[in-house]
Design goal:
With 237 residues, the chain is of the alpha+beta class. The chain has one domain (46-236). The protein is built from six helices and eight strands, in the order ααββαββββαββαα. It has helices spanning 6-49, 60-67, 92-95, 165-168, 206-220, 224-229; strands spanning 68-75, 78-79, 105-112, 115-125, 130-137, 144-151, 187-189, 198-200. The strands form two sheets. The chain has a six-stranded antiparallel sheet. It has a two-stranded parallel sheet with strand order 7-8. A hairpin with a 6-residue loop joins strand 5 and strand 6 (144-151). Helix 1 packs parallel to helix 2. The longest helix is centred in the first third of the chain and has 44 residues, at 6-49.
Length: 237
């Protein structure tokens, strides 16, 4: 075959494309287990971070097993005994697209130094893309113990500040259920937070701050009846 012909060039290109595609496919399949393991360990780190436990990725499994005593599935505000699958494997991006009553949601119960904490996963939308995180409630199932947030593509120095301690620490000791036993969530205010149901938003990051507020309200609401049954609201006062 004439190596200078168009036919040769075409066939050579096709063969190279097929070979490169095959190599990339093999590489992707080979690396997938490692990628999934990294995602799992990072998720465990985030869950533990919500109860103020910082761990290395390599220690995440051991510490997760040490502190997380139960992994429940919640539906319609109650433990779902018949739901299939594992709580840890639930995809929040899928669940938040459903009405509250149709969601099957994970709930993590932790024991730290003899105290019980309820950890709720969060998923919402910021200015440029998805935001997510975890919020932990104290033994009264109404008062925040810790919170952690992250994002995919928020603006550095503005909305991206949601993943900093200076923002997340503001949620400690705030309440999601008031003294009357009503769910109020936590509002994000523009520099005017003055109650135990509010925190200051991020200067210059109003849309992302609003996204965090909407995320908290939307993601905690389906758990409220369960939280009240665990001493949330009036019974805890």
């Amino acid at each position: 075959m004439d190596v200078n012909s168009n036919k040769y060039t075409y066939l050579f290109s096709v063969v190279m494309v097929v070979i490169v595609a095959a190599l990339l496919s093999v590489a992707a399949m080979s690396l997938k287990p490692f990628q999934l393991a990294n995602v799992k360990m990072e998720k465990m780190q985030d869950i533990l971070s919500s109860i103020n436990i910082a761990v290395d990725r390599n220690d995440s499994q051991d510490k997760f097993d040490q502190y997380i005593t139960e992994r429940l599935i919640i539906k319609n505000g109650a433990i779902c005994e018949d739901c299939e699958g594992e709580a840890f494997d639930i995809d929040m991006s899928v669940q938040i697209s459903k009405p509250h009553e149709e969601r099957t949601l994970p709930l993590y119960i932790a024991d730290k130094e003899g105290s019980t904490y309820y950890i709720i996963p969060l998923r919402g939308r910021g200015l440029w893309g998805p935001i997510w995180g975890y919020i932990s409630l104290q033994e009264d199932a109404a008062t925040v113990y810790g919170a952690t947030f992250d994002h995919k593509s928020e603006t550095p120095g503005l909305g991206a500040e949601i993943n900093t301690a200076s923002f997340q620490d503001n949620f400690r000791e705030k309440r999601v259920i008031n003294e009357k036993g009503d769910f109020v969530s936590i509002a994000i205010r523009k520099g005017s937070a003055s109650t135990e149901y509010e925190v200051d938003g991020i200067s210059g990051g109003t849309i992302t701050s609003d996204g965090v507020g909407d995320m908290l309200k939307d993601c905690i609401a389906p758990y409220v009846e369960y939280l009240k049954s665990r001493n949330g609201g009036v019974a805890s006062i």
